[in-house]
Design a protein that fits this description.
By secondary structure, the protein is mainly β. Helices cover about 10% and strands about 45% of the residues.
Length: about 140
């Protein structure tokens, strides 16, 4: 069984009044893990593809806090889905062992990434065919 079926769009509490908006995202409440790392991607042209990997351990939540982007997820077994991140109070939950491509960045895109793990290069699978082979062995 793959984790692909666990990928889901999340909607976060949004508060606001005449002063503006406030979006709240809390680990273990709004997202299903403790946040151990935060990073963001900006300045990527619309024709650039970021990500292009799967992670053995890390789970992520991606939120476009400004602008827009798309995220394509694959399970390595032929299933894929595309999510549009176009509202700052929504995000996508990505469990471990799903392939992710982020692309179609608007000029003003700032993609916030929340991770369940500290960075460890050894847990990244950066070759799609290797990912496919691993997933087929899991069946």
């Amino acid at each position: 069984m793959t984790n692909y079926h666990k990928v889901k769009l999340l909607e976060f509490p949004e508060r606001g009044d005449e002063r503006g908006h406030l979006v709240i995202v809390e680990g273990m409440l709004d997202i299903p893990f403790e946040i151990k790392r935060v990073f963001y991607i900006y300045g990527s042209d619309s024709d650039i593809v970021r990500g292009q990997h799967a992670n053995r351990k890390s789970q992520f939540v991606l939120i476009n806090v400004a602008g827009t982007s798309k995220v394509k997820v694959k399970d390595g077994l032929g299933n894929e889905a595309v999510f549009s991140l176009d509202r700052p109070h929504t995000g996508i939950y990505l469990p471990s062992m799903v392939w992710k491509d982020m692309y179609d960045f608007s000029e003003d895109s700032v993609l916030l990434c929340l991770s369940s793990e500290h960075y460890d290069a050894s847990e990244y699978i950066r070759d799609y065919q290797k990912f496919v082979d691993i997933m087929k062995k899991e069946l």
